[in-house]
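[step 3/7] fold_predict: job queued, chain A
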Amino acid sequence: MRIRDLGVIDDAVVELAPGFTVVTGETGAGKTMVVTSLGLLLGGRADPALVRGGAERAVVEGRLDLPAGSAAAARALEAGAELDDGALLISRTVSAEGRSRAHVGGRSVPVGLLAELGEDLIAVHGQSDQQRLLRPARQRGALDRYAGEALAEPLARYRACYRRLREVADTLAELTTRARERAQEADLLRFGLEEVAAAEPVAGEETELAAEAERLGHADALSSAAALAHAALAGDPADPDTLDAGTLLSQARRALDGVRGHDERLATLADRLAEVGYLFADVAGDLAMYADDLDADPVRLAAVEERRAVLAVLLRKYGSAEGGTAEVVAWAEQGALRLAELDGDDDRIEELAAEEAELRGELAALAAEVSAARQAAAGRFAQAVSAELTELAMPHAKVTFDLTWIDDPQGLELDGRTVGYGSHGVDEVEVLLAPHPGAAPRPIAKGASGGELSRVMLAVEVVFAASDPVPTYLFDEVDAGVGGKAAVEIGRRLAKLARSAQVVVVTHLPQVAAFADRHLVVEKTNDGTVTRSGVKTLSDEERVRELSRMLAGLEDSELGRAHAEELLAAARGPRQA
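[step 4/7] structure written:
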């Protein structure tokens, strides 16, 4: 992994080998930036404050050796990534303005893909994770994770049933509480539909009525104009001497017909005059028929205006001038459907109430199944964690799980009780710790010291490693609050875990660091203007000096060096066993 311009780190390369790698260094040297870098590579939140002062962006690049056929490899290939001899190259860039970009196998990808890959590749734990372990919800989640498929399958069915119950209950509550509003809406719809049905509007009717009203209102003027136009075209029978357009046209046509044989062009004009004559005759006939048909009927005009007034009321209430009666007809169709829905709500309320009762019964049965699976897993989980604590210098400590139901009058009927429930089921889960014989088990949130909590968390993770392993484990100072023999046992247990997985530990404890297969130190120098950090792999001699510094605060203290060599010798046996 290469880190550039992240926090106090200017440019550093971190080589994480198989087995147990420990990262140490002075406080403030940038050890946490190593953890942060891995977090960024695996989809963690991008914070522009992480960008080194004066730099435009921070960049983290990594090379992951993926297990053959792993889900992570398949997901990366699905996203279009390319593997390099079985390894996946990934990078994450965070700009000082807060923009973030990710690349996987040479392809630009959403940051969410890095998080998906991270779920299958690495388990990261720090002191914040210890605090989260104190929350009952996290403790329940840990138990559920340990229980595996035996719990996952009934829990999935429970959650599906729970979601359906919530949907039914919400719909039923809405229908019930809005009964008055629905009744008022139904009354308004019913009145409107009756009003529209009484008028029986036809789509486009208002346009035809407007045209008819315009014609009837000007019938006399229209008739007079048609008569005058007819007389101009065909003449007035009462006055034979009237000169009309038809007569003039006939004269022009006869004048041309006498000489058309002498010029083809003039013959064409004569034909056109003949066509005009036919058209004049047709128009004159149509004008005569129009004048005869036009009837100034005041009774019909009154009926048309009355109908238009009725339609205007409908348009104002149920449509618009732009949409016309077609919009009123559409409103009536939709209103009829809505009224049928409202009128059927009473039947629907009965159906939903019956379904709700059925779902509650089904949910109670599934809750009992989920609770039984948790109870069965809790005993095994507690026993496994207690066994791990024995190896972590807590030989008499005992962990138990307290699974309880909380009474709730609105809850589920279960074994003669009415208990509260949620999307997780009915169980409230709490981890109890009895650190020594005779001590009453107490919630770890109240009864565990910082060192005990660190060891409980490590024990839980080791148990998970056996049942649901990931290739890499990263622990960021989870040994805080631990010292002496307990620290030695933590180091020994981490070395044991590293036999089956890659383990990376950031620590201040020399007892833990001594058990590592590979020791990296984060060194910080100051040139007076820019602070830089580098990550260095220690040789055996350098390792003795670093452990001496961690033990005594002095790299060259003879007593510190002797103690460091003793620690390494003591740790070498378990590593080689």
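[step 5/7] annotate
Residues 345-391 form the longest helix (47 residues).
The CA atoms of residues 173 and 349 lie 9 Å apart.
exit 0
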